[in-house]
Amino acid sequence: MRHEKYMRLAIEQALKGQGETFTNPIVGAVIVKDNVVLGKGYHTHYGAAHAEVQAIDSLTSLEESIQATLYVTLEPCAHTGKTPPCVERIIAGGFKQVVIGQRDPNPIVAGRGVAFLQAAGIEVIENILRDEAYRINLIYNHFHETKLPYVTLKYTSSLDGKIAAKRGVRTNLSGSETWQDVQIEREKYQAILVGSETALVDNPSLTVRNPQGKQGLTRIIIDRSGRLTGKLMLFTDTSQPTWVFTENSNLKQRLTHQHVRLFFEELWTIEQILMVIAQEGIQSVFIEGGAKILHAFINGGYYQQLLIYLTPHLLGSAGVDAIDGAIVQQPNLKLISIEQLGTDFKLQWLPQEKGG
């Protein structure tokens, strides 16, 4: 139980860095000797010292780390990146023991940190509160384990499952509280994706319009047939990069903006698109529709979270269904949370393995 107690403190530290460390994970560390917490630290932002180093630097004297135990939520790195290897500071500090929440799935770490510490004679204890440590870095873990981005599907609908009053008409269903919450959700991701129908009908800018916004989004549009025009907000607003996946090579003649990248193939599959996004270093994607895009991702099983904002409206048979097409295989979804936002409700679902 002692190890769990201090690992929970390390997890609390890690959470302080949430939203600040892209594309690094959030990590927390705690230094303990004789059941007394002597130092704490977390990874504050991308490029800053890692949690282990922050904790060591918080000590009042270098002698305090000698024969102490270091608790860290993620395996310490053994390579030089933006910062020197953490294992070197740990070894130099004279620690007798390192307790780890989870191994780092990033192939440049992936057990090397543990091996480095053990070779130096430091006892390493692994997988303490592993599930909790894993959950705080779901996006990072998924990306490095699957080589694909973590995908959240989001839509706002009426009570009868419609996302618009009729096809081709922009319909505002949600209240101000939901609008604000969507801005907060967008901020958690590196990219936001829509289909050409949403881009043409809603003409969105797909930015984070939130005073607390800390990072820009890469805007991605799937436009297979090449319907987009350069007059849309996605192209006239040059504040964020915009990517277009298309099967129409002529689109490049219309979209010549410097902030726009076109990805052309004669046939794009959803998996191929996600692979390209991952190869470009994007670890997470927030998908806001429309109906055909949601259908394609759900049918292919290419999502890790489903976020539905349910609004107090009834649009009837003329309305546009949230998902355009038959679901080939019914997903096994688990409801994680329900939250009321003004007159709307936010429902978070996670897909489960069959029988899970």
Order of strands across the widest beta sheet?
11-10-9-8-12-6-13-16-15
Under CATH at level 1, the class of the largest domain stands as Alpha Beta
Coarse shape = elongated
Main sheet?
A: 9 strands, mixed
Strand content: 25-35%
Using only C-alpha atoms, the radius of gyration works out to 23 Å
First-to-last CA distance: 28 Å
* Class from secondary-structure proportions: alpha/beta
What is the H-and-E element order? HEEHEHEHEHHEEHEHEHEEHEHEEEE
User: What's the helix count?
Assistant: 11
Determine the CATH topology of the largest domain.
Dihydrofolate Reductase, subunit A
Q: What would CATH call the architecture of the largest domain? A: 3-Layer(aba) Sandwich
How would you explain this protein's 3D organization?
In the N-terminal section; belongs to the cytidine and deoxycytidylate deaminase family. In the C-terminal section; belongs to the HTP reductase family. α9 (233-236) links the parallel β9 and β10 (242-246). The model has no long low-confidence stretch (mean pLDDT 94). The protein has 11 helices and 16 strands. The chain is of the alpha/beta class and 356 residues long. The chain has helices at residues 2-15, 51-57, 86-92, 112-119, 130-135, 138-146, 176-186, 196-202, 233-236, 270-279, 291-300, and strands at 28-33, 36-42, 69-74, 97-102, 123-125, 150-157, 162-164, 191-195, 218-222, 242-246, 260-264, 284-287, 305-310, 320-321, 332-341, 344-352. The protein is elongated. The strands form 3 sheets. Strands 11-10-9-8-12-6-13-16-15 form a 9-stranded mixed sheet. Strands 2-1-3-4-5 form a 5-stranded mixed sheet, with helices on both faces. Strands 7-14 form a two-stranded antiparallel ribbon. It folds into 2 domains: 1-143, 3-Layer(aba) Sandwich (Cytidine Deaminase, domain 2); 147-351, 3-Layer(aba) Sandwich (Dihydrofolate Reductase, subunit A).
